[in-house]
């Protein structure tokens, strides 16, 4: 009986590991996997079908799962070493989502596309998004090299801490784990810049929607902070100036936006996505990878804006400018953003 129970436990754990490693929603990166073998012209004007106006290839469907209709609170875990100014840029971006008075084109205007998604009762995703509680993990409690499972362990530590634990809010909370530039996460750079999923009760104690996004400044800014850093294998391509003066953090902003939009529309991976395989869903931000303006598609970012200091951006926040990728509008059947020219 003891041996049987042990075998069952091992089998269950093996299944859990397989499930996590095969279904964690997604890797976001601007280049296709074989990008290094492509010609510069192909990268610039690639044959990707994820163009701003392409609708015939997309079969986005609602699979009856929940979306985040309650006011959304983003609980942030700062893992590693963070400068206060970096935290401020990210906090202001999140709080800008609900700040309607920002100058157009605005982050709040970008979120209006996300709000179009509804649950089975017809309720829309909430327009209210704010930063909630924060937890600092300055001493790298789980090391400087994290696996996908250990990311869930970091979240568990944050919600079960003896002092100032993060609140547990399964229906309205998003748990955002942000790792500093000296932290490497499984598949970082090679496959992912960020991903989202939900925590397992067997690990964390609760089912909580979460996302991880890494600061790529040290490991791969040309991959995860593009276009503020560019790959060396594309001759003549010039990096753009980041609007907040920090290549790593400005690059993170768009990935954070990407993951938050998809968490809102597909928190338990059973709501809005395209494709017949729920273990590999194509979600509302995946459909617009690398598109920041009108005409975007392939590896062309689209038409963006330039600040007086030469920085590139496409949206205004409360007091700052940001570069944020567009998301899929399922009513119009193409990618949209507040800086669209048509």
UniProtKB/TrEMBL annotation:
Q: Which residues form the signal peptide?
A: 1-27
Please provide an example of a Pfam family that matches this protein in its UniProt record.
Phi_1
- The lineage's top-level taxon is Eukaryota
What Gene Ontology cellular component terms go with this record? apoplast
- Alphabetized UniProt keyword annotations: Apoplast, Secreted, Signal
Task: Indicate where this protein resides in the cell.
Answer: Secreted, Extracellular space, Apoplast
Is Secreted among this UniProt entry's keywords? yes
Main subcellular location of this protein, as a coarse class: secreted
Give the UniProt family note: Belongs to the EXORDIUM family.
Record's protein name: Protein EXORDIUM-like 3
